[in-house]
């Protein structure tokens, strides 16, 4: 069994990105990211600060816009518009979740698709489903795919079982593996006999957000187990969706929480911002 070290894989990707960014800067093209945080949710704040830090470490331009919890939808839309037309900004990200008085879809759709480095805009979702090479792929699913590829396991023809159907993780993760010629099964809260399904998984992706929902008897021996859950217990301890201790000897490869998929998310955001910068540069050269 191997424990997939998300921090190490992320570090290796960031080293390559740093070289690429250096070259881009020498050509006068500095990738820039704008991150918008609404309110003061502690976890969201720590994620946006980590995003800003990653930009700085890689030599990218970054702006962190902090807005009050009470901001109106109109003012938030205006803020997005200003970054849509800012030439120094290649990627725009609005940290989720948003306060309940703001329509999340409306906000995501206000970001121009060329700067939607989260890959949440319907145009990018459509491009991803169509297999368009210029689609931004959501960062967590992209990180998951990178980690599975890193194991050296052949994905083609494998049965991937995704537990969870969120727009952020579950749905796009299944699509990505489908594109790699896997057979994909989606499971969710209404799935009958979940265990029967998860036992089919050569690759099992748990993205539910419920501590230890995947128990040892639900995992096929030799499976690759990817845990996307980041659940904070009352004790303050972080815990995944997978019962790691019970499953680690049964799985061929498994991701821990913390230190598995999480660190990959921010690295893939950096990757998407570099892509955005390169794609936008090409568009400008054509016009
Ligand atoms: N606009 C977006 N909002 C949200 C996204 C997203 O991709 N775009 N994803 C999550 C939050 N997220 C990044 O934004 C994120 C979550 C977790 C981690 C991470 O590194 N987790 C660590 C544990 C961190 C801790 O101690 O709390 C780990 O798993 O090792 C990074 C980024 C929702 N919102």
Automatic annotation (TrEMBL):
Catalytic activity: (6R)-5,10-methenyltetrahydrofolate + H2O = (6R)-10-formyltetrahydrofolate + H(+); (6R)-5,10-methylene-5,6,7,8-tetrahydrofolate + NADP(+) = (6R)-5,10-methenyltetrahydrofolate + NADPH
Protein's organism: Fictibacillus barbaricus
Keywords: Amino-acid biosynthesis, Histidine biosynthesis, Hydrolase, Methionine biosynthesis, Multifunctional enzyme, NADP, One-carbon metabolism, Oxidoreductase, Purine biosynthesis
CDD domains: NAD_bind_m-THF_DH_Cyclohyd (cd01080)
Name the UniProt record assigns to this protein: Bifunctional protein FolD
Gene3D superfamilies: Leucine Dehydrogenase, chain A, domain 1 (3.40.50.10860), NAD(P)-binding Rossmann-like Domain (3.40.50.720)
Family, per entry: Belongs to the tetrahydrofolate dehydrogenase/cyclohydrolase family.
Pathway(s): One-carbon metabolism; tetrahydrofolate interconversion
HAMAP family assigned to the protein according to its UniProt record, in alphabetical order: THF_DHG_CYH
Domain Tetrahydrofolate dehydrogenase/cyclohydrolase NAD(P)-binding stretches: 138-278
A GO molecular function held by the record: methenyltetrahydrofolate cyclohydrolase activity
Tetrahydrofolate dehydrogenase/cyclohydrolase catalytic domain: residues covered: 4-118
InterPro entries: Aminoacid_DH-like_N_sf, NAD(P)-bd_dom_sf, THF_DH/CycHdrlase, THF_DH/CycHdrlase_cat_dom, THF_DH/CycHdrlase_CS, THF_DH/CycHdrlase_NAD-bd_dom
Binding site residues for NADP(+): 164-166, 230
Chain's role: Catalyzes the oxidation of 5,10-methylenetetrahydrofolate to 5,10-methenyltetrahydrofolate and then the hydrolysis of 5,10-methenyltetrahydrofolate to 10-formyltetrahydrofolate.
PROSITE patterns, A to Z: THF_DHG_CYH_1, THF_DHG_CYH_2
Record text on subunit structure and interactions: Homodimer.
EC assignment: 1.5.1.5, 3.5.4.9
């Amino acid at each position: 069994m191997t424990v997939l070290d998300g921090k190490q894989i992320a570090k290796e990707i960031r080293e390559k990105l740093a070289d690429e960014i250096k070259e881009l800067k020498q050509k006068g093209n500095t990738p820039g990211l704008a991150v918008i945080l609404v309110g003061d949710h502690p976890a969201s704040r720590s994620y946006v600060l980590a995003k800003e830090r990653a930009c700085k470490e890689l030599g990218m331009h970054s702006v962190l816009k902090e807005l009050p919890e009470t901001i109106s939808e109109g003012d938030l839309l205006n803020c997005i518009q200003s970054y849509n037309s800012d030439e120094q900004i290649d990627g725009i990200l609005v940290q989720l979740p948003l306060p309940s008085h703001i329509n999340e879809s409306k906000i995501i759709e206000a970001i121009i698709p060329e700067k939607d480095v989260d890959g949440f805009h319907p145009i990018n979702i459509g491009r991803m489903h169509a297999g368009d090479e210029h689609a931004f792929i959501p960062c967590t699913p992209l990180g998951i795919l990178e980690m599975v590829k890193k194991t050296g396991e052949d994905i083609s023809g494998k049965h991937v079982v995704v537990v969870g159907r969120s727009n952020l993780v579950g749905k796009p993760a299944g699509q990505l593996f489908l594109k790699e010629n896997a057979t994909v099964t989606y499971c969710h809260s209404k799935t009958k006999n979940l265990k029967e399904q998860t036992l089919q998984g050569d690759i099992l992706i748990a993205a539910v957000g419920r501590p230890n929902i995947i128990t040892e008897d639900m995992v096929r021996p030799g499976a690759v187990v990817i845990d996307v859950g980041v659940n904070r217990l009352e004790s303050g301890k972080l815990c995944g969706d997978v019962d790691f201790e019970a499953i680690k000897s049964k799985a061929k490869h498994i991701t821990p929480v913390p230190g598995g998929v999480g660190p990959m998310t921010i690295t893939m955001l950096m990757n998407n911002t570099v892509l955005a910068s390169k794609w936008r540069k090409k568009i400008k050269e054509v016009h």
